[in-house]
Amino acid sequence: MLKTAEDIRQLNERIGQAGQFTDKLREEVGHVIVGQSHMLDRLLIGLLSNGHVLLEGVPGLAKTLTIKSLSQAIQANFSRIQFTPDLLPADVIGTLIYNQQKNEFIVRKGPIFTNFLLADEINRAPAKVQSALLEAMQERQVTIGDTTYKLDDPFLVLATQNPLEQEGTYPLPEAQVDRFIMKVIVGYPKMHEEQMIIRQNVQGLKTEAVKPVVSIQEVKNAKDLTRQVYMDEKIEQYILDIVFATRTPDKYQLEKLKPLISYGGSPRASINLALAGKAQAFLNKRGFVIPEDIRSICNDVLRHRIGLTYEAEAENVKVEDVIEEILKKVNVP
Amino acid sequence: MTRTFCYRTIFYLIAIVLPGIVAAQRQTVAGARVDRAQILIGERIQLTLTADIPENQPIRFFQLDTIPHFEFLDLGKIDTVNTGSGTTLTQKILLTSFDSGHWVIPAFPLGEAVLTDSIPVDIGFSSFDPQQPYHDIKDIMDANPVEEESSSKLWVFIAGGVLLLILLYVLLRKPRKEQPKAAAPAVDPYRQAMDQLEKIRKEKLTPKAYYSGLTDVFRVYIEKRKGIHSLQQTTGDLVVQLKSVEMRPELYKELSETLQLSDFVKFARYETSTADDARAFETIKTTIDHIEQTVKTAVASATTPS
């Protein structure tokens, strides 16, 4: 625990040096991915804060390519599971297979044994598969037969959801969505970015292969440093005010939000705001968290943790609108 | 002994034989009666039919269709009572007649062998003396007002009049001027800020409390004086918004640096020198003075006639 200003100053310096790996990553992934810097930043926050990220966006927004490129740039293993209605838990975590020659059962590990796991269209698999994955995400270990296996470190699950074609899907329950540190809405690229994408794909511009520029050890060190980032009690209070305002808006002079919110953020919301805030500070090469860090990640951390009422839906009020109102009302320390 | 024996034998014989005799004698009884034997034309008469049917006999009742010279007004439901030794059925029928004369309600058969009694009924007119002279139909006459009724009406009129007067008074009276509430003494944001700054200067505060106090004083002042919602803004956002406030560039730069320094002290335990503290204090005070002066000048120029 940091005690003095000197500790924080030294941490600042160390983060300043260690944090350069994020620049290298951005640059390397930027060779392949045009735009989507917001998504890349959120993936890095997930990586640094040891959390998993849920990505929601229409098909064709380079979600898979970004994650794949990130894993290549980190020299990490990458697996992808396309979730379908007939998928079984064993297809994700692995199973025991009988070996006739050796006359014994051998373990066949599933694709979950990797550093970066892309769970594509997670809402298309039934609840038991989702549950198996989400449990592994939480425990960071998997039991096959009688043996428990620890998952790799870093272990980052990036699950995607397609907001279209919702028929025949199994939407993640609130309790399970809560396990993702962030839910990132992946938007369309800007016009000039899309122009670059056209050129890359149509005019035959050669895309560079992503080179490994960061080692897993560097990532682990960065995660350790992120944990040490100083968070003052004033920032903690700010986080608590924001989360409590989602639960009891009337106590923050937000009476108009009361009929719009059916349930507010859980304690996990506060924890994840703090963790993501520290990671955001690290990305900004700072050894301490400031209110700007919390505000910048508020939408992504809270949007899947606040339930809206039918009244809100009828009035076309989105979760982001609610969060914005709360941020406008809660005093900054 | 012999006599006693004889009496006992006779008693036993009676006790054994008599119920059998009684049971053998029980048979279906049908009855009919009316509540009045004489009515005027159109008056009602109630006919009650009863059938007392012993056990082991089939249950049956009268099948009525019409009664000559009589009209049915209401055929009541048949009421069944279990008497223990049989069943009693009762039906009440309302009749009337529009034929004057002496008529008989005939006997009604119940099964083949049982009949009710026939009942004579006189249907007559009201007493009428043809010797009396005829009188024209009278006009509608005014009812004589009863003394009590008129006095109660008088009271109603009096009460209504009083109510009307009260209503007129309420409506037409001049609205009383509301006493102006003792207005809370308006606190001048500038004065308040200066008082707070003076308090901060005098108190021995920790660096964190000192810089929190300074920024809070400035934020509250700027919110009250310029309407900028500074309390809910981060330092970065506030610095951007302060560009819209008329200020010398050097002062703006110093203020931005002071606000950022405050963030370092508040969130990163940055240790400042005494000179830093004095400079921060002076910057906040100067900025508030400057903004106050600008506002006063603007107000004065707006009120001065051209």
From TrEMBL, chain A:
This is MoxR family ATPase. SUPFAM superfamilies: P-loop containing nucleoside triphosphate hydrolases. Residues 52-182 form the ATPase AAA-3 domain. PANTHER family: MAGNESIUM-CHELATASE SUBUNIT CHLD, MOXR FAMILY PROTEIN. Residues 259-326 form the ChlI/MoxR AAA lid domain. The lineage of its organism: Bacteria, Pseudomonadati, Bacteroidota, Chitinophagia, Chitinophagales. Gene3D superfamilies: Magnesium chelatase subunit I, C-Terminal domain, P-loop containing nucleotide triphosphate hydrolases.
From TrEMBL, chain B:
The keyword Membrane applies. It comes from the Bacteria. Keywords: Membrane, Transmembrane, Transmembrane helix. The chain crosses the membrane at residues 154-172. This is BatD family protein. It comes from Terrimonas ginsenosidimutans.
